[in-house]
C-alpha cells in the first residue's frame, strides 16, 4: 500500500471539515474523544492504490479531502468503475476482513482512518456511530439504485448532467452553500474516468460537456473548473422530476 509522506497534521474531530456528514456526525464530545484515541491519517497521491480487492483491510476510514474510485476487476482483466468516494464517504466494512473493491485515489486523497477492531468495539459501546453508519449505508443503497437507473435508461447528456449534479450537491453541502446560488467546483474526474464510470466513450463525454457549455448550462474554465450558474437548470437536464424519479 503506497502512502505519501509526511503524514497529515492532526486535526481535532470538532474542527474536521466533514464532521457534519461523516460517520461521527451524531457523536457527543466524549464519543469524539474515544474516536480521537484510535484515529490516524493517511494521504495518497492521484493514481495510488489505497487497497486492492481481496486484500486484508485492518482499518476503516472517512474520506476527508479528495476523491477515490471503487472498481471491480473481472477474470479476463477488464475493470469496471462501480462507485465514487467523495469527502465524508465511509471506506471499509466493519465485520469484514477483506476489501470488496479496488480503491484508487483519483486526486490527492486524505483519509481519517480508524483501526478496525477498536472501531468495531466502539460501535457496540456507542450507538450513535452505529446509527449514523446505518443511515449512510441506506443512503448508499439508494444511490446505487439511482445509478442503476442512470446507467440503464438515461441518455448520454442526462448521464453527464446527473454526475455533475451529484458532485455539485456534495461540494455545496461541505461548504454549507445554498443550492440556489452559483456553484463552483473543480471536477475531480478526467474525461476518461467519467467515460468509464458512465459507460460512455471518451468522445461522447467530451461532446456532451461541450454541448452543456454551449447551451449555458455549465461554464468551463479549462477541462476541470466548473461553474453552474443555475442548479435548477442543470437538474432539468438530468431527466429526473422534482421527486427524483425519471421524467416520462
Automatic annotation (TrEMBL):
Q: Report the GO terms under cellular component.
A: cytosol
Hey, what's the signal peptide range on this chain?
none
DNA repair: is it a keyword of this entry?
A: no
Q: Which GO terms describe its molecular function?
A: DNA binding; DNA-binding transcription factor activity
Q: Please state what the protein is called.
A: Helix-turn-helix domain-containing protein
Q: Which Pfam families match?
A: cNMP_binding (PF00027), HTH_Crp_2 (PF13545)
> What region holds the Cyclic nucleotide-binding domain?
23-140
Q: What organism does the UniProt record list as the source?
A: Rhodovulum strictum
Amino acid at each position: 500500500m503506497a502512502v505519501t509522506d509526511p503524514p497529515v497534521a492532526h486535526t481535532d474531530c470538532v474542527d474536521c471539515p466533514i464532521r457534519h456528514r461523516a460517520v461521527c456526525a451524531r457523536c457527543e464530545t466524549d464519543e469524539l474523544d474515544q474516536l480521537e484515541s484510535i484515529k490516524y491519517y493517511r494521504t495518497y497521491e492521484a493514481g495510488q492504490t489505497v487497497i486492492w480487492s481481496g486484500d486484508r483491510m485492518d482499518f476503516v476510514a472517512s474520506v476527508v479531502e479528495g476523491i477515490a474510485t471503487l472498481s471491480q476487476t473481472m477474470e479476463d482483466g477488464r475493470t469496471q468503475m462501480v462507485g465514487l468516494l467523495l469527502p465524508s464517504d465511509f471506506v471499509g466494512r466493519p465485520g469484514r476482513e477483506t476489501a470488496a473493491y479496488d480503491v484508487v485515489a483519483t486526486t490527492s486523497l486524505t483519509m481519517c482512518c480508524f483501526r478496525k477492531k477498536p472501531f468495531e468495539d466502539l460501535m457496540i459501546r456507542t450507538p450513535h456511530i452505529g446509527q449514523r453508519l446505518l443511515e449512510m449505508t441506506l443512503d448508499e443503497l439508494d444511490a446505487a439504485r439511482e445509478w442503476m437507473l442512470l446507467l440503464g435508461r438515461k441518455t448520454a447528456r442526462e448521464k453527464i448532467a446527473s454526475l455533475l449534479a451529484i458532485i455539485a450537491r456534495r461540494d455545496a453541502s461541505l461548504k454549507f452553500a445554498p443550492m440556489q446560488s452559483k456553484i463552483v467546483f473543480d471536477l475531480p474526474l478526467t474525461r476518461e474516468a467519467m467515460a468509464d464510470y458512465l459507460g460512455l466513450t471518451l468522445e461522447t463525454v467530451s461532446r456532451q460537456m461541450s454541448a452543456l457549455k454551449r447551451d449555458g448550462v455549465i461554464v468551463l474554465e479549462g477541462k476541470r473548473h466548473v461553474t453552474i450558474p443555475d442548479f435548477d437548470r442543470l437538474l432539468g437536464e438530468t431527466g429526473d422530476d422534482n421527486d427524483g424519479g425519471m421524467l416520462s
